[in-house]
Amino acid sequence: MFANMNFLAIVAAAVAAWLFGAVWYRAFATRWMDALGKTKDQLMPGGRRPISSMVIVFLADLVMAAVLARLIPAMGPTTIASGWLTAGACWLGFVLTTIVVTNGYARNPSALSAVASWHWLGVLLVMGLVIGAFG
Fold this sequence. Notes:
Structural class: mainly alpha
């Protein structure tokens, strides 16, 4: 399944997505924590996020980038445009729907869905850009 894949593009896409996520959640941390009903002390004991959380996020980004790298060529030539279109379709069809349903059933505030879903759109678009740029 992963033969003929550009592993450098996958790792670069995962790193770029991880960095995007770090910037995103730094910008929207207060809104996200308010929507969760949690405080910074509850989420980051000792004032620091556990390293295990950051590793898990990176591994998830790596898996997502690998799957996206497999899907993009199925849409045609691997370009930035096909990367963005495929990433956007994956977000709309799988990520947004999952977040909205999960948070809807849990009766979580819509702000939680908004922060998470826009984050994942950004992550996927960054991955699509990077993978597409590698060709």
